[in-house]
Design a protein that fits this description.
Layout lengths: L1 E8 L2 H7 L18 E8 L12 E4 L2 E2 L7 H4 L12 E3 L3 E2 L6 E3 L5 E4 L10 H18 L19 E5 L3 H12 L3 E5 L7 H8 L3 E3 L1
């Protein structure tokens, strides 16, 4: 399938790659196209593509599975837990990224987003960092039902407290996820209030502390 790239996010990872701190180009290439946070529009599909269609907005996955059959995580589509370390990542490790006009990719790695989320959809990839952390937290919490009985995905009536260190994009997204799941959420940042960051934090019902 072919995507027209609409937006690409720039984060600390891209800054470090541009400073040559890490980043690996594809085999046989002398350069690496950066850009792992992206939003694209499907413009063409092949005959085997069934799940997406032209006009769909999609956010591609960054990490791709390793080739080893013994890696159970990658074979189950959980390459974020790759056993071998031989995964690849678009725009970071051995695969070109999305900072280009068009991209050809596999539909299995596409996450379709509603068109009404067009203005914020490029944030889906960094949002997954917070979502994954919360998923792991709920799994741990299920082993401790006496601490605070909760049903994952439902508000916990401020039975839990959370601290987010830093009010950058990922920190703010993490605070939103926590507040949305019923956590009494505190965000610590060096920037004094009032500020755009403190406004966002307080608008979601969290507490901003400088």
């Amino acid at each position: 399938m072919k995507l027209r790239v609409l937006e690409v996010g720039i984060c600390g990872t891209d800054k470090e790659i541009c400073a040559f701190e890490y980043g690996t180009p594809p085999e046989g290439s002398e350069y690496l196209v950066i850009g792992h946070e992206s939003l694209g529009e499907v413009v063409e599909v092949g005959a085997a593509v069934k799940r997406v269609k032209p006009g769909d907005l999609v956010v591609p996955m960054v990490r791709r599975p390793c080739p080893h059959q013994e890696c159970l995580a990658c074979r189950e589509g959980r390459q974020d837990f790759c056993y071998t370390g031989d995964f690849t990542e678009r725009g970071i490790k051995q695969q070109h990224g999305f900072m280009t006009e068009y991209v050809v990719d596999d539909e299995r790695y596409m996450n379709v987003v509603p068109r009404e989320l067009r203005d914020v959809a490029v944030l889906v990839e960094p949002l997954t960092i917070a979502e994954k952390g919360l998923t792991q937290l709920w799994q741990v919490q299920q082993r401790l039902p006496w601490a605070c009985p909760v049903e994952p995905g439902k508000p916990a009536a401020y039975c839990h407290r959370a601290v987010v260190l830093g009010a950058g994009p990922v920190g703010l997204l993490g605070a939103m996820v926590l507040a949305n799941n019923g956590f009494q959420t505190f965000v610590y940042s060096q920037e004094t209030k009032p500020s755009a960051k403190s406004h966002v934090v307080e608008s979601i019902g969290a507490t901003y502390v400088s």
